[in-house]
Amino acid sequence: MSERAAPFHCPYCGDEDLRPHEEGHGAWECAACNRAFQLRFLGLLSRGLSGGPDDRRNGGSDDRS
What we know:
about 60 residues
C-alpha cells in the first residue's frame, strides 16, 4: 500500500511549513501558527463520483431534458 499525499497548506493559516506530528498517522503540525491537526478519510459520499462542481451546489445531477 502506498503512502497518502501530504497536505500542502495549513488549514488554519495557509502556511506551507508543515511537518509530520508524532501523534500518529495523518497528524501534522504547522510551524507558522503552532497548531497540530489530523487528516483522515471519512468515506465515499452516497451520490458517488458522477458529477462536477455544479452537482455539489445544486444537490444532484443537472438533468434538464
